[in-house]
Amino acid sequence: MSKSTEDRRVLLASQPPYLHPPYVSTQKRAPSKPLVALASSLANINGPVFGHETIQPNDGDLTGQHSGEPLGERIIVAGKVMDDDGHPVRGALMEIWQANAAGRYRHKNDNHAAPLDPNFSGCGRVLTDEEGRYSFATVKPGAYPWKNHENAWRPAHIHFSLFGAGIFSRLVTQMYFPNDPLLPFDPIFNSIPDAGARDRLVSTFDWPTTKPEHALGYRFDIILRGSNSTPMETIHP
Amino acid sequence: MKLIPTASQTVGPFFSIGLAPLFQSQPTDGTVPDGAIIVRGNVTDGDRKAIPDAVLEFWGSGGFVRVPTEENGSFHATLKLAAGASYFDVLVFMRGLLRPVYTRCYFDAMDELRKNESLTKVPTDRLTTLLAHSNGMRGQYEWNIRVQGKDETVFFEF
Predict the structure, then answer these.
(1) Local structure of residue A177 (DSSP, 8 states)
(2) How far is A83 from chain B (nearest CA, A)?
(3) Residue A40 included in any domain
(4) Shortest alpha-carbon distance between residue B30 and chain A (Å)
(5) A40-91 confidence digits (pLDDT tens)
(6) Whole domain around residue B140: which residue ranges?
C-alpha cells in the first residue's frame, strides 16, 4: 500500500459513518441512500461571521454565571483551533454545552435522577484569538446513564460546536477526559473507526493550563477542514 | 501532508442548552417580513415518525439562520434570499446523526431544477425533495425533510 493510499484510508476512517447500529438512534435516522455529489463547482459558502458582540460577559466562565459557585471539580479547558493546513482559525465561534458535575443537563427532557445545580447552566461561548487559541472555565461534567443498551453510561464529555472558514469547516463534536473507564464501551465514541482519531477527542491533562490553587487544566486542540476542502466522500482510498 | 480534521460527534438530545442563543427569534403574529420568505416543514425518520430534536441551519449569501424542530417535528424559518440566489444550503443535526446531513432547499421552478448544472447527478425522481413548495400565500413555502426511507431527502456529499 502506498503512503498516500494509507493516508487516505486513515482520513476516511477518521470520521464516523451515518449508520452505526450499536448507537441505536442511528438505525432510523441514518440516510439509507448514497450521498449525491454536487456536479458543478462546489458552493463554498462562507461561514457567518460572529464578532465580539456575540459573546456576553461570563460566556467563557461556566462557573461564574450565577450568584453562587457550582459544585464539582473546577477545570479549565484550553487549546488551539487550526485548519487542516495547520493555520490558526481566528475569531471562530465555539459553542459549548455539558452536564453538571452530577451528570445532569439543565434540559426539560433530561430525566436522570441526579440533582440539578442552581449555580450551573452548562452553556458557554468563546471566540478564538489571533493565534486560534481558546480557553474556558467550567466544572468537570459527570457521566450519566442513557438507556441505549443495558446499563449504558456515557463517558464524561463536553459538547463543542464550531464555525470555521465555510460550510465544510462546520464541526460539532464531543471532548472526552483521559483515562475514563467508560470510553471502551461507548458506542458514540467508538463509532469512529480509526483509533488515532478517537484518541484525538480525548483531552490531555495539561500542567500549563492549570491555575494554581484554583483549577486543573485540560488541553483539547481542534482541526477544522479548510476553505478549499472537498467532501469526505470524494476521498477514495 | 495535511492535518486530519477532528472527528464529528452527534449533537445529542440536549443541544438547545448550547445552541439556543443563535436560534432565530420568530415573529409571533405570523406575518412575513418585507422581502422575506417563510419556510415551514417537518422532519421525520425512517418510520415516518416526527423528529422533535433536530436543529437546522440555513446557509446562504443572504444570511445564516438556525432553527430547532418542535415537539411535533415541525420547524419554521424566516429567510432572505440574496439577489439572484435560488436556494439555501442546509445542514441538519440531531441525536442519531454522528455527522450532519447536507442538503439544499430551492425556491425555484421544477423545470429550472431539471436544468440545474449542480444537480445533474441527482436522480430525477428525487429532485422534488430539494424543492420548497409554495402554499399559495405570498412568501410562504413548505419543505419537508425525511432523513431515511423511500422518499428520503437528497443529501449531498459532505
Answers:
(1) -
(2) 8
(3) no
(4) 26
(5) 655 556 778 888 888 988 999 999 999 999 999 999 999 999 999 999 999 9
(6) 35-146
